[in-house]
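Structure in, sequence out. Go:
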């Protein structure tokens, strides 16, 4: 799991039905108290137990899609809780919008042959974006050990190795 991947993922095709696959994962979670999760017909989320969970704890989201009789496509996505992901996404979006407005206003001031000190806001916002990225990478490092544990648990539950993209 390289740190270059913000949200590691995988996709594989397996034999069987979604019901069988989900029951295998549910059985493994029932036997191992280290992991909890949400299991439904074609969707599953595997999380670290509440006692060990922290702000940067990752979770594995599985989406199951039957592609033919007895064949199933499994898509897995490792990432933080959706609320953590949303905070970072919205922060990047806000920084982008602020940079756009500062740029438009600053360039219009330049076209009117006026001073445009607001353009200094753009590198400041870029530095904040880089800072957010570094914080996210640090958070990913904090949760890396738990991500490895979830991945090994998942591989043990389905009884084969899974390579990440």
């Amino acid at each position: 799991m390289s740190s270059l991947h913000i949200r590691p993922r995988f996709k594989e095709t397996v034999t069987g039905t979604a019901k069988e696959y989900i029951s295998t994962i549910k059985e493994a979670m029932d036997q191992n108290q280290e992991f909890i999760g949400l299991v439904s017909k074609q969707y599953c989320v595997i999380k670290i137990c509440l006692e060990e969970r922290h702000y940067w704890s990752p979770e594995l989201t599985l989406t199951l899609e039957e592609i033919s009789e007895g064949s199933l496509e499994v898509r897995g996505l490792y990432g933080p809780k959706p609320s953590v992901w949303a905070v970072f996404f919205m922060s990047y979006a806000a920084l982008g919008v602020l940079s756009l407005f500062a740029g438009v206003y600053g360039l219009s001031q330049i076209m009117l042959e006026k001073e445009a000190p607001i353009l200094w806001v753009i590198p400041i916002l870029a530095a904040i974006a880089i800072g957010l990225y570094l914080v996210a990478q640090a958070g990913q490092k904090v949760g890396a050990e738990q991500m490895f544990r979830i991945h090994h648990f998942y591989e043990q539950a389905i009884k084969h190795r899974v390579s990440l993209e």
